[in-house]
Amino acid sequence: MQGMNDEPARWTQATVYPDMWADPDDDPRNRDSSSPDGERATLRDFLTDYRITLRMKCEGLDAEQLARRSVPPSTMSLLGLLRHLAEVERDWRNWISDGEPLPKLYGARDADFHGAVADQSVVDAAYADLEREQAAMDVALAGFPDLGERVGKDEMAIRELMVHMIDEYARHCGHADLLRECVDGRVGQ
């Protein structure tokens, strides 16, 4: 329901903890009550949870809502974030490779955001790109069991790369919180 100032009313699906996005039993991030053992498992767990959080923030929206630039003058949209993070996942693989860099998915700088248009085929492609690039990055990371191993042209430590990935997702999940609230009023962590 829109108010007098055209801002959507704030709401959440959560009933157990009203400041949450979903109830604990419905939250796919609540896979296990125990915390992971070890540094690598902890980093993977945080990265996985942020990847899931981004998808959760986009759930239930149509192509127009996903493409809406709801926080002007920013060019960001939830669809743009999906496309951007697919591009970033690909770029991170370039960081750990000694070979020729993979080409950009969407072209020139900021094309990931500018090309985020309200078309279901663009939405479907963004989800497919993100899933494919995440899976490819996971396979690439699995090839480096030592977090201290330095790889790529810049000799970046795998640990540093994983922390950077978590940082990128965390920052953009914060953006997704604001974008989603402006689209339909849904709030929660």
UniProtKB/TrEMBL annotation:
What ranges does the record give for the region Disordered, renumbered to this chain?
1-40
Read off the InterPro entries from this record: DinB/YfiT-like, MST-like
The source's domain of life comes to Bacteria
In terms of Pfam families, this protein maps to:
MST
Query: Where is this chain compositionally biased, Basic and acidic residues type?
Result: 27-40
Full protein name: DinB family protein
Organism name = Streptomyces wedmorensis
